[in-house]
């Protein structure tokens, strides 16, 4: 299983949008995909139409090891797409991870028994927290959605720092898959100055080490496509799927 985190260490950067739409896209292309919701806000869980019952195992129990990981995996209404859900209680795992002494490597260890998925996409929370460290430790690749704004540039730099820190002490070997500029604003046929400056700054900062993928344009369509079984293609906007097509090609070439 190839583990990819959608991570960006600020709020509202498009992490959940990218995680859910990429997972749906890859599942539609025939990959067997596992989406892990690792944000106590549980937005990905909600978007996939899953409601957590009080006695149901979630990512919390899976990380703590009080259930077998397989028991926290649920089918969704989308074929080829399974989910390890989250709910608000996931916040409790922060203290548990920090006192475990092995927080950064815990999720990777827990995911090892899973053999039936090709790709795991992890939706991350915005904070630089214990959850974020365990996701970096579990990741083969980090995909960074970053708003095409000054805040988004800052989020990219924070995320790169967090990954470097864990790679330096060798609890992670995550590589950067690339940046996907989010809410890229255009007026008519022209990209706004702010978007252009921020995307150029992202390219400069990455300096060829990782790609800046085609952007997610500012558009209500993505919000519509994120819920339930719909996809951008089914909504009649296949061209808006282009960023996911490109990322999926890169993932396919890595898997080969
Ligand atoms: P958080 O840090 O809270 O987890 P996030 O990084 O996961 O946020 P999203 O929830 O994916 O970010 O997106 C932030 C907001 O942008 C959401 O309200 C979402 O509906 C909206 N949004 C998604 N796609 C687009 C788009 N293409 N254009 C404009 N807004 C969008
Ligand atoms: Mg989110």
TrEMBL record:
Protein name: Chromosome partitioning protein ParA
Residue ranges occupied by any AAA domain in the UniProt entry: 4-165
Organism: Acaryochloris thomasi RCC1774
């Amino acid at each position: 299983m190839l583990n990819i985190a959608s991570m960006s260490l600020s709020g509202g950067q498009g992490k959940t949008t990218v995680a859910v739409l990429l997972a749906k896209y890859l599942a539609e292309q025939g990959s067997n995909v596992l989406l892990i919701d690792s944000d106590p806000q549980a937005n990905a869980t909600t978007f996939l139409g899953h409601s957590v019952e009080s006695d149901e195992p979630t990512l919390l129990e899976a990380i703590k090891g009080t259930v077998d990981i397989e028991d926290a995996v649920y089918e969704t209404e989308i074929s080829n797409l399974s989910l390890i859900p989250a709910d608000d209680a996931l916040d409790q795992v922060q203290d548990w991870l920090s006192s475990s002494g092995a927080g950064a490597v815990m999720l990777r260890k827990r995911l090892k028994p899973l053999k039936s998925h090709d790709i795991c996409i992890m939706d991350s929370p915005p904070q630089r927290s214990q959850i974020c460290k365990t996701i970096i430790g579990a990741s083969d690749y980090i995909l960074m959605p970053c708003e095409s704004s000054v805040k988004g540039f800052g989020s990219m730099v924070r995320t790169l720092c967090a990954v470097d820190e864990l790679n330096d002490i060798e609890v992670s070997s995550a590589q950067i898959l690339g940046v996907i500029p989010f809410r890229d604003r255009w007026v008519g046929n022209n990209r706004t100055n702010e978007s252009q400056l921020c995307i150029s700054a992202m390219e400069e900062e990455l300096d060829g080490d990782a790609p800046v993928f085609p952007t997610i344009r500012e558009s209500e369509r993505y919000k519509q496509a994120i819920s339930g079984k719909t996809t951008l293609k089914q909504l009649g906007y296949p061209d808006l799927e282009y960023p996911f097509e490109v990322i999926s090609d890169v993932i396919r070439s890595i898997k080969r």
